[in-house]
Amino acid sequence: MKSFWKWAVAMVLPALFVFSSFSGDLVQGQAQWATMTIGQAGAKAGSWWFSSDFAFSERDPATADDDSLYVASTALLGQDWLVFLHVSKDGGATWTKYIVKLAGDVVIGARVKAASYKDGDVVCVGWQDWEVGEGIPEIVAQCFWAPKPTVESLPDTPQNMPSEGALEPAEQVAANDPYNSDPSPQAIIPLAAEPTNLSNTPDTNSGVHDIGTGDYVGQWDLGINPHSQCATNGFPLVWAVWSEDYTQLLYSRSTDGKSWEPAQAFKNAEGQEVFPESYTRFPSTYVDKDGVMYAAVAQAIRPPDVFMSASTDCGQTWGELANLSQNSGFSDGPFVAVTEDGALHTVNDDDTTNPDNADIHHNRCTREGNAITCAGSSQPIAKDGGFPYIATDGKQALYVSYSSHPGGKLGGVGFVCSSDGGQSWSAPEEIPNSTIGSPTIRFTDLGALHWQEKSAVNAQNTLYLVWVQWIRGQAIKLQLSKRTPAC
Question: Measured between alpha carbons, how far is 447 from 331 in angstroms, rounded to an integer?
Answer without folding.
Answer: 18
